[in-house]
Design goal:
It contains two helices and four strands, in the order βαββαβ. It is an alpha+beta fold. The protein has one domain. Helix 1 crosses helix 2.
Length: 89
């Protein structure tokens, strides 16, 4: 898959993607620093091993890596790019 925009050079695509990734990384880390969920809860089952349960306060958007990917895609789409299958050489 590759980001494609009509009349854009490879250098411009690389620059825009790098900027979007950098901004997304900063935003995802800031979000997770200020808005942490109250879980996960640690539960000890009958076998004595420690299991992690997401619990009732689990936030699927808590994962900073997933949040970073979503924000990068949002940024690139707002710049007019589309994610399309890459051409084989």
């Amino acid at each position: 898959m590759a980001w494609v925009k009509q009349d854009s050079t490879p250098e411009q695509v690389s620059e825009d993607l790098g900027r979007c990734q950098q901004d997304a990384w900063q935003e995802a880390r800031a979000y997770n620093w200020y808005y942490r969920p109250m879980g996960p809860a640690y539960v000890s089952p009958a076998g004595g091993r420690l299991a992690v349960s997401p619990g009732p306060y689990y936030d699927p958007f808590y994962d900073p890596v997933m949040q970073e990917v979503r924000l990068t895609q949002f940024c690139m789409k707002n710049k007019g790019y589309e994610l399309k299958p890459a051409e084989e050489n």
